[in-house]
Amino acid sequence: MKKVITTIVLALSIGQAFADNKTASNKATATLANSCQFSTSNVVFGNYDPNATDHLQSSQNLNLKCTKGTAYRIWTYAASSLALANYGAVAIMTSASSTDKLYYQIYQSWYTPARWNDDNNYDPETYRGTGDGAWQSISFLYRVIKNQYVAPANYSATQTMNVTF
What we know:
By secondary structure, this protein is mainly β. Helices cover 10% and strands 34% of the residues.
């Protein structure tokens, strides 16, 4: 029995010889720049009837998510220097099978007059917002101007939406 007790005491004293502990600390850092991501959907007007009593309308949502506190602005322009009497600036849809042009306009609800102009959008026509870290949806309204008697065809255009932050 004496031999067993000696062995246990010897094992405990060896373990205590290596029990010293040292610590150090470090600092974690990161820099986050302003950041935004966005997407848009296609604007689909469907079938256009030039005999309709009103303009053919559609809408588009621009979905945007920016870091909290990031100021952003959204802008576009009519992409044409053409202004139609009684309508102002217009954008143009064309067709591969016709030389005719189908005119449309872009509207916003936060500015009067609501029509986007063809002047690369002076400040009042720019939508301004601040990111909150969640997805935000901003709606744009489009309309094909009524009473355009053009050749039957599939008309299209590319409209560029810009987000600056």
